[in-house]
Each structure stands twice: as C-alpha cells, then as structure tokens.
Amino acid sequence: MTRPLRIAVDLLGAELPASELIEGAAELREIRPTCELLFICDSESIGKESSNGYQIVDCTNWVRDGESLRDILRERTRTSMHVGMHMLHDEKVDGFVSVGSTGALMALGRHILHTPLGIDRPAVIKEFDGKQLPFWMLDLGANIVRKPSTLLQFAFLGSAYASRVGGVERPRIALLNIGIEARKGPTLLREAAALLGAAKELNFVGFVEPSHIFEGSADVVVTDGYAGNIALKAVEGTVNFIRDVFFHELGSDDHGDAAQAIRKRARKRFRRLMRKLDSQRHNGGSFVGLNGVVVKSHNGTTAAGMTAAIAQAVREVEMGVPAKIQAFFEKG
Amino acid sequence: MTRPLRIAVDLLGAELPASELIEGAAELREIRPTCELLFICDSESIGKESSNGYQIVDCTNWVRDGESLRDILRERTRTSMHVGMHMLHDEKVDGFVSVGSTGALMALGRHILHTPLGIDRPAVIKEFDGKQLPFWMLDLGANIVRKPSTLLQFAFLGSAYASRVGGVERPRIALLNIGIEARKGPTLLREAAALLGAAKELNFVGFVEPSHIFEGSADVVVTDGYAGNIALKAVEGTVNFIRDVFFHELGSDDHGDAAQAIRKRARKRFRRLMRKLDSQRHNGGSFVGLNGVVVKSHNGTTAAGMTAAIAQAVREVEMGVPAKIQAFFEKG
Q: In terms of Cα–Cα distance, which of A291, A270, A307, A235 is closest to A21?
C-alpha cells in the first residue's frame, strides 16, 4: 500500500457519546500506530479536545431504525452510512465500521459496493472458538429472508471464507437446524439441504444443532439471519449469565485469607476461560459477500467494543479478505 | 387420590437400551416411594431381571422420525406413543413421558387428550433460572408453524402457566426477537406484537433479545418452536462448552498439593454454578395446552436424564397443572 491503512467509523446512532467511543480507540493506536482512523459523527456534540487527534467527518444525518430501505436507497442519500460507504467505494478508506442498522448496511453495501459474481446478498459472518477447532457461522443477522437459494449462497460464502481466509481445506458445511435427522425442521431447511447436497463444490455434511456447534463437526454453520442472530444472542446471554453467577457464587464465600486466595485463583482461571470465549462475545460482525471490508458494531457498544470492531476491520483489510472472496467466485 | 400416582414412560426409540433407562429410575423410587412407573418398551430386548420390579407394557411398534402426521393419526394407531396417550386419556396413568418425536407427541396429544377452550395447539414450556428470578419460555419445539395467532395463544398459555403454576401476578410477557425496537425482525413478529399488545388480559412488555432473557425483564418469553428450540440448544451448547473448557483449563495446571486443593475448590464452586444451571440443561420439556401431563424427553437421554424427565411429570401431576391451566381458560 502506498498510504497508511485507513478506516472510516460511523458513530451516528450509538448509545454512548461519540467522544467516549473515540477515546477508546487510543488502545488501537498502540497496536497499529500507522493506522488512520476517520470518525463520522456530529462534531458539535463532541468537544474539539475529544477528537484525540483523529479526523472527524461532520454529519448529523443518519439512518434511523425502521426507515424503509427504499427511502435509504433513493431519498436519504446523505446519511453517515452513505458517506462511509462512498468513501470505501472511492478507496478513500480501506474499511468501514458502522453502529447503524445491519439491514440498512446490507442494502446499502449491496447497492454501492456490489457483491461478487453469483452472489445476491451479503451475510454477517463471525469466527467462534470451538472445543478443538474454530468455526464460522453465517448469516448472523443481515437478512431475514428465508429462501433455500439464499442459504445456498451463504454456504458458498462461508466455504470461501473458511478456505481462503481461514485456511481450511474443503471446509465441512452444515445447516443449523433443530435436529439432525433428514426430515427435521422447517421445509425451507429440507429444501436447502437438497440444494447444498447437490452442489459438488461444497463439502456438505448435513444438519447441526446449536447444542453441538462447539464440538467440531462442522467448519461452517449456515443459517438464515433470524435464526443465526437468535443463536448468537443466546450464546452471548448464557456467557454473561454464567460469568455473573460464577462471580456472585465466589463472592458469597467466607472471608478468611485462604478463601480469598482461592477466590483469586479461581477468578483468574475463569477470566482465562472468558478470554477463550471472547470471540463469542466480541463486538463486530464482518460482512462477507460485499466488495469491501464492512464491519457492523453493536449500537450499544462500549469504547472497548468499538476498538474491537475497528481492529476486526483492520485485520480484514490486512488479509485482503474481499479480494480473496472475489477470487474464489471468479475462479470457482 | 385413591390410588398411588402413576406415570407411563414410553422408551421406544431411545438411544440407550431400555434396561439402562429403567435402572436409572431407581433414584426416583427413593424420592417418591409410592409413585408407580409403567414402562412401554420392547420386553424381548430387556432381561426380566432388568425390569427392576416395574410394570412393563410390551410394544414393538413406535413412531419413527419423519413419519407423516396423517399416518400417525389415522393408520399407525398401535404405537407406543398411542398406547401411552390412551392410558393417560383413560386415567389409567396420571402422566406420560416419551422419548418420541416432539411433533408427533404434539399432534397425538391434541388428537387424543384435546386442548383447553380457545387453544388450538399445545407448546413445550420450560422454567429457566435467571439472574434474580425464574422465567418461562415457550414454544421450545413442538410447532414449527409461524403464525401471529399461534404466538398469541402461546402468550396466553405462558401467562396461564406463570400465574397459576408459577404464582407470578400479572406475568410480564415478551416476544423473543433479534432486537427490541418495534420494527425489528420478521413481519410475523411485528404482527404478533400488535395482537399481544391489543389483548387486555395480557401484560405484554414488548420484544426481548435472547442475550437478555436471563436478566429478568420478562416472566414469560414467547417464541415459535423453531426459534425457541434454536435458542434452547444454543444455551445448552454454551453451558456444555464452558463446563468442558473450564475443567480442561483447571486440569492443565501444575500438580503440587496446593494447586490440587485449589482445583478441587474451584471445581466445587463450578459444580454449584452448574446446579443453578440445571434447569437450563435438564432433560424434559413439559407440554402446556394439553388436557393431561405430557413430558417430552430427549431420545438420546442418559438414565439420570430420564429420571429427571419422570420427576418433572410427577411434579406436574402433584401440582395439578392441566386442571389449573384449564381453569384459567374457562374462567378467563
């Protein structure tokens, strides 16, 4: 690259003040000192001292939840999300992170950045830690359309990601379902299974239940955005619940020195475990199937979560993810 | 009651041999010595000594996964599931536990036992431990039909269960969705929210995300059987994953006496936590909305899991759950 890596970050609509989220990014500067960040936000609402030396793009116009996609695509073309997407398209930045609506990001990304050959819809993908091996799951919430042909495209996108980015040879692809028997679940999934099974280029291994995804029977778990988001958030909720209850249980113990030492050790172990689960909890879902690096952040993210989402975008740019995915579809 | 409490248990189709599952029930005998169990299974496959003194109903005919509901209802009327349902209907037993298909149990229960006034479809409900309060979730897998009117019925069933059985006054009812904003998720859920909001008898509080169900914002979480089963199994998978990784982490430590003592203590704490999560992992989902106690067990259950499912049926019989639910719908 002839210039430093550059990421645009759309903060409009975030629950926390922009100034707090921008300050959080200082950590990233330590890891990637040469990375340039450019924040799209309402510059009036942040003090000049809060910009932390980063570039600010002033914008007050943002996509509100529940706006029609038609309006977003045709009428309201000066929102923070449009600004970021166009900067990415025009190669003024290398990656785009947004706290905006996943559905709007999907639609706008598709419209401005376009999708690889043969792909109609991008999906949100995430890498998870499994017991032995990592695995990928998609779509985690970009599309609530439920069509067998869409799931087939997600299977190809997941296979492309796991092989070209994750380095897995002939990734094993499974469909998320409520049972593994061939006749389980909605008709949609049985039709999708027939399509995936017939696609010679895919290493389709059948259905997988959410209770077994961590056990390593599949490298890629394919699902629609509704079920995928339900599963993702159930995992998040359980991790948080166990963490809170575990610390509460430890805290309710006696207060002798020995007991305190044990508590300290156990907490340390538990934190190590929670780090392993970080990828499950981390903020930032990557779009796969857009010709550009786009990462969706929770709009309720903390400063640390925002930094994690930006770091995710940086990694994807450095690895050249979109080009690798495009190459997969061009060469087959 | 003029005779001891009696539960019929359909074991046909279980992964473990019937003899092992029957032996597991010895634990239950200790807790409820007067409870009579009656196992429906293939008597040839178990030794006489394995019956453990329980009554065995010989049957070799069972509902196979993927059989059409039409066949089950009209043609194949001598399966173990039919035998159990008819015993329950004829009051020869007080509760019925089956390892058979949830969908078949739903259809057959509806056909033989019938549903309360105004209810078309029963659902599978389960009590979960939350951070502060328990909560109930339904449907966990009986129906893959996705209709707003069905979700409205589940809301009433959940409200009936939480108030009449759980003792919660004016239970707060939420719909499971991938966001809490009014326009999030599939159209189905927005239509259902309108129906639930308009029902004066329901204390509808809006959408809840799976990441927040443990936090106490709702007493009853209503969802369709597909999303509910996805969420339930994602919780199960995460609990198992954390348990396995935690013990692995603890095991990889040094082997001095002090370290071993700490491991032992931390494991004890973690087991205590896991007991709190038992209700999340426990085998046995109860049908609500059938005029009789029917509990569905995993077909891959262990002996301990089978005992848990039977104990669940015993509790429901003792509490008179179906009569309480019926009374709710008759009196409004």
A: A307
Which is nearest to A309 in space by CA: A2, A77, A52, A96? A96
Contact A178 B230 (CB under 8 A): yes
Q: Where are the alpha helices (DSSP H) in A39-186?
A: 69-74, 80-89, 102-112, 148-160
User: Three-state SS for A208?
Assistant: strand
Distance of CA A62 to the CA centre of its chain: 21
Shortest Cα distance, chain B CAs vs residue A162, angstroms:
22
Looking at the DSSP bridge assignments, the partners of residue A56 are: A39
The residues spanned by each domain of chain B are 1-119+289-332
Return the percent helix, strand and coil in chain B, to nearest 5. 50, 15, 35
ipTM of the complex: 0.88
Q: Does the domain spanning A1-119+289-332 belong to CATH 3.40.718.10?
A: yes
Cα–Cα separations (whole angstroms), residue A238 to A192, A279, B128, B226: 29, 14, 12, 19
For B314, list phi and psi in degrees, rounded to 5. Answer: -60, -45
Partner residue facing A239 (CB), from B131, B182, B238:
B238
Distance between CA atoms of B245 and A140, rounded to whole angstroms? 24
Question: B261 or A238: whose pLDDT is higher?
Answer: A238
Picking from B78, B77, B36, B74, the residue whose alpha carbon sits closest to that of residue B56 is B36
Answer yes or no: do A246 and B270 touch at CB < 8 A.
yes
| Residue to substitute from B242, B263, B264, interface A, most A β-carbons within 10 A | B242
A223-274: per-residue pLDDT in tens?
999 999 999 999 989 888 888 877 666 655 555 666 666 667 667 767 776 6
Tell me which chain A residue has its CA closest to the CA of residue B234: A210
The CA angle B12-B13-B15, to the nearest 5 degrees, is 120
CB–CB contacts below 8 A, A to B? 158
Q: Which residues of B124-135 are buried (b: 16+ CB within 10 A; e: fewer)?
A: bbbbbbbeeeeb
Find which of B190, B217, B241, B265 to mutate to test the A interface (most A CBs within 10 Å of its CB). B241
Q: Do B270 and A65 touch (CB under 8 A)?
A: no
The percent of chain A in helix, strand and coil, each rounded to the nearest 5, is: 50, 15, 35
pLDDT digits (tens, 9 = 90+) for A51-66: 677 888 988 888 887 7
